[in-house]
Write a structure and sequence with these properties.
The structure is a single chain. By secondary structure, the protein is an alpha+beta fold. Helix content is 38%, strand content 25%. The chain has helices at residues 2-19, 56-84, 90-97, 107-114; strands at 23-28, 31-35, 45-48, 120-125, 130-136, 149-155, 161-167. It is elongated and about 95 Å long.
C-alpha cells in the first residue's frame, strides 16, 4: 500500500512538473513553430510563456483597433491634401474621402483615395493617343470590395485618369 502511495505521489509530481514545462517558439524559414522540445538551432529559439496567450476575441479587437488607426491616418492625410487644394472639384473631393476613383483624377488624387502605390507601369504611344497603364495588385484597406488586380489608365497629355479595369 505504501508503495502504491509512493508511486502515485511521484506520478502526480511528474505530471505537475510536465504540465508546467516550457514551450519553445522556433523560427524556421520565417515560420513560427511551437514545441515542447528545444529548437534545432538555438539562435532561433525563444521561450514562450503559455500564460501570456490571448483569446481570439482580444486578438480581433486589437487587430480592429490597428485597422481603425490606419484608416484614421489615411483619412487625415486625404483631408490635409484636400484642404491644401481648395480648387479641387467637389466630385473628386468626395471620391477621395469615400475611397473611390473617378475619371478626371490625377495620380496623386488616386493615391490619396486608395493610399496604395502601383506595382507596375507601361506606356502605349500611338498616333491617336498616348496612355500609361498602372497595375495595382493590393486593394486599399478602406475599400469594402477587395480586388485581386486593378489596371488604371491615364492620358499622358492631360495626366488624368481616363479608365480602369478591376478584377475581383
Amino acid at each position: 500500500m505504501k508503495t502504491v502511495k509512493l508511486l502515485l505521489t511521484i506520478g502526480l509530481l511528474g505530471i505537475s512538473m510536465f504540465s508546467q514545462a516550457e514551450i519553445y517558439k522556433c523560427l524556421e524559414n520565417g515560420v513560427a513553430k511551437f514545441s515542447a522540445y528545444p529548437c534545432k538551432d538555438p539562435a532561433s529559439q525563444e521561450e514562450y510563456d503559455i500564460n501570456r496567450s490571448e483569446s481570439m476575441s482580444s486578438y480581433f479587437t486589437r487587430q480592429n483597433k490597428k485597422l481603425q488607426q490606419k484608416l484614421d491616418e489615411q483619412r487625415a492625410r486625404a483631408e490635409a491634401y484636400i484642404a491644401s487644394y481648395p480648387a479641387i472639384p467637389s466630385t473628386i473631393r468626395d471620391a477621395i474621402l469615400d475611397c473611390k476613383i473617378i475619371r478626371g483624377m490625377n495620380r496623386k488624387q488616386v493615391y490619396y483615395a486608395w493610399n496604395v502605390l502601383p506595382e507596375d507601369q507601361k506606356q502605349s504611344i500611338s498616333r491617336e493617343s498616348s496612355l500609361t497603364y498602372f497595375t495595382y495588385k493590393q486593394a486599399p484597406i478602406c475599400a469594402n470590395d477587395k480586388f485581386k488586380e486593378a489596371d488604371l489608365t491615364f492620358d499622358n497629355r492631360t495626366k488624368l485618369l481616363v479608365g480602369w479595369n478591376i478584377r475581383y
